[in-house]
Amino acid sequence: VNKDLLEERSKCTFDKEEFTVWWVGGKDRLEEKRNREQFCMSQPEFRDKTPLHYVSHKELYEETVRKATAIFAKSKEMVQKKHGFNAGNFVNFLDVLCGDGFMHQANPLAVHFSMFVPGIIGHGNAEQQERWLDRALNCKILGTYVQTELGHGTFLRGLETTATFDAETDEIVINSPSLTAYKWWPGGLGLTANHCIVMAQLYSNGRCHGVNPFMVQIRDEDTHMPLPGIEIGEIGNKLGYNGVNNGFLGFKNFRIPRTNMLMKNAKLSHDGTYQKPISSVLNYGTMVFTRVLIALDTSQLLARAATIAIRYSCVRRQSVIDPSKPEVQVIDHQTQQGKLLPQLAKAIALKLSADNLWKMYEATQMDLEVGNTDRLPELHAISCCLKAVSTADSAAGVEVCRLACGGHGYLTSTNFLNLYGSATAAVTYEGENTVLYLQTARYLVKVWNQALKGQQLMPTVRYLVQYATKPNTR
Amino acid sequence: FAWSDSIPVIIEAFQAVTANRLRLANEHIQQRINAGRTPQEAINETGLELVRLAEIHCRGFILQSAYAAIEQACQAASQPLAEVLREICRLVVYDEALRITGDLLRFTTMSDNDLVELQRKYESSLAAIRPNAVSIVDAFDYPDFILGSTLGVYDGNVYERLFEDAMKSPLNQEPVNRTFELYLKPLMRGKL
């Protein structure tokens, strides 16, 4: 071990293991995490044959599919022995299945676990969960969540894909009426998924009922060939995050049974009668869940970047502070501390706030079970801005860490490129950040007006009441 | 809002800034509506203010969440760990506060001297965390397998790792690349 790092470690004032237990969330979770890591490290098929930063676009896809499937199969085997793999516990393994830690790359099955499975849980009624959930959890079908189109992303009401109910056959006909209606971006869609949850404008009895989710099989399960009426492919190379296999998808009079509309929240009956969800925000549940995951994930990206840069800054020596003494460790320069230590602290703060959001999400889910939607708008508002801040700060923070490593930080072998690619991808997907801030702001404007009327506010905005009810004296 | 540099007060200051910015944004929306804009147009024209206040609201939420979680952890933690966690909390709160000093000077009683003191506390916090920096990142418990970084390896033998990785480059698998015969040599001989 490098002698400077040994010296650093000898100065530690606290019990590192105690910190780790707190950071990971308890002794049991730490033990489970280490078992999982040990298991993964011991599997020869999890190792890269060639460093991924040297392979071609096609080779990268093939290698990430190989690793993702191996990781899923082995993880499932390990989990089955201990707990059984089910809808209740799969979220505990999302970091393995979706995170880029084990893969060092985005994963073509990540959206299957992070959005397709939660989408079935969040949008599917009991009967539909019976049909698809177990098959999805066990990768008997491979799915993705298909929302964004070439012409529209964050503005959901602008989506063009149509799902028109045909009462005669009790089917729904899906169409992409223009090139801009083509689905574009979903991870795993290009060559990996054979099913997807498609968000489309529902028409029945001559009326549009807005965007609703539909379960659609897009490829044959045996041959993997696209089904007739489906045009599908991969969208090409990107700045980073290339392992995720983003795809495009067009529909031409593609028919699905009416019962493939996911009907946990909204419902469509045989005669085309549409029953709205009790809250318009309910259909966004999967997106809220995903935003919580993004906030958690990006805090980890920043923590990893800070780990790399801080260790290197203690190994690297550069310049002198006192001309009579040898070169100092880079971290002894106050400017370096000012770059790196706030990133370290911020990673922790972002993780703790994402944990808090996760608790709010769970509490809100329990409320929903008994039909209480009171906290949904608050949850939606805070998840929007937390996604925006955590991704933006993580991306900026990873870049600060890279720059703090000087010339060597520019090498892809440092892994900053993948960390930055993942963080900036998170800035980009699941809602454009400015639009997300505006959604939060609209909620704040709304509750400000409630506060002016002396109404009770939800916990995260309750503080506004005291400012609304007294004049600004400054 | 009465400024002080205690951590809970700084976090509350984020709330005060959000509330005052929200008050102003609301007034500006109303003024624009009174001037004949539709509510949607008025909101669009107040977009910059709205985005900024939403971000500050969120930063207040992050700081409040971190502070609450760390204080809760400190109740059960050993004293040395509690000191480290509280120092981390102080650093992130000072850092965030220094990023909105314009708002703090505008919407709280913060003075120039208070600002100088905040900067001093921030620098003290950096110095206090410095000796534990490596141990804190060690405590994140990322194995080398997960970090996947030549510079971030636990043993710190970074120069050896950089060299090993360079040797894996496809371009280093043969001593002479075919472009020598195809292009470089003809160029040097004037036969291109």
In terms of topology, how is this protein built?
The complex is a heterodimer of chains A (474) and B (192).
Chain A: H1 3-10, H2 16-24, H3 27-42, H4 57-82, H5 94-97, H6 110-123, H7 126-137, E1 143-146, E2 162-166, E3 171-175, E4 183-184, E5 195-204, E6 207-217, E7 230-234, E8 247-251, E9 254-257, E10 267-268, E11 274-275, H8 285-315, H9 334-369, H10 376-404, H11 416-428, H12 433-452, H13 464-468
Parallel strand pairs in A: 1-5, 2-5
Antiparallel strand pairs in A: 2-3, 3-9, 4-8, 5-6, 7-8, 10-11
Chain B: H1 7-34, H2 39-45, H3 47-76, H4 79-98, H5 101-107, H6 112-129, H7 133-139, H8 144-147, H9 158-167, H10 179-188
Helix pairs in contact in B: 1-2, 1-3, 1-4, 3-4, 4-6
Structure description:
The complex is a heterodimer of chains A (474) and B (192). Chain A has 474 residues and is of the alpha+beta class. In chain A, 47% of the residues lie in helices and 12% in strands. Chain A has 13 helices and eleven strands. In chain A, the strands form three sheets. In chain A, strands 1, 2, 3, 5, 6 and 9 form a six-stranded mixed β-sheet that branches. Chain A has a three-stranded antiparallel β-sheet with strand order 4-8-7, with no helix packed on it. Chain A has a two-stranded antiparallel sheet with strand order 10-11. The longest helix of chain A has 36 residues. The radius of gyration of chain A is 24 Å and the shape is globular. Chain B is mainly alpha-helical and 192 residues long. Chain B has ten helices and no strands. The longest helix of chain B is centred in the N-terminal third of the chain and has 30 residues. Chains A and B meet through helix 1, helix 2, helix 3, helix 8 and helix 9 of A and helix 1, helix 3, helix 4, helix 6 and helix 7 of B.
